[in-house]
Amino acid sequence: MEFKGAMGGIYRLTEWITRFAATNLLWALCSSPFLFFLIMKLIVMSQQMNNESLQMNWAMAIVAPLTLFPATAAMFTVVRKWVMGDSDVPVFRTYFAGFKQNYKQSLLGGLFYTLLTIVMYVDYTVYMTQFPNLQMIGVIMLILLIILFVSMFNFFSMVTHYHMTIGQIIKNAILLTLIRPFRVFSTLFGSAVLVYVGVRYPVLFIFFIPCIIAWFAFFNFYGTFLKMQEQLQKQQTDGESEGKEAAAEETKN
Fold this sequence. Notes:
About 90% of the residues lie in helices and about 0% in strands. By secondary structure, the protein is mainly alpha-helical.
């Protein structure tokens, strides 16, 4: 039964609210070990317990590749279907199919991103605090750390959209961030706004915000993908036209 008018709009709105909430709850469930240590870190930080805060950092670094990255890749599997027009896809089945299918690549990617983040963050901290004359290197490390973080939006999108090796996915995710920065950094800006709202209303993190960020990230990635595909087809068409013109001129001569 299909509703029309105002009732139809309300029905579709509640449908989308349910889809986002269900996907977000599945993500929170599958990444719960990481979220647990994150919450514990926030608690010990508020009590200025520095040693315990450092321990939580290591705990999050250990569980992130095992839980957070596969759970996020599965969430991107669902929002990819929505962005590409398949809005009636079953959320539960699609989520866990994506979790299983992309687990290995998201785990390996999680190890890469986690280790590189630790190395860059330690370098940044050391250069900024221990070597005052070399703080420029610390600034460079911070810039690289931001680029690395932003490239994760492309990484999760590529894991769910392409069939590539993990090395190709990571390389292309970073390259796409560098050569097409506008859409990716607009995703970062939008994510920052959503996180700010979530800080004021924490319950939104449980039901909506991570899933909305994933949807927005893949939406921007897919727009870039379609634009690059269009440019490639145009180049191929132009090349074929030039080839035909050259052949015709040669025949005429």
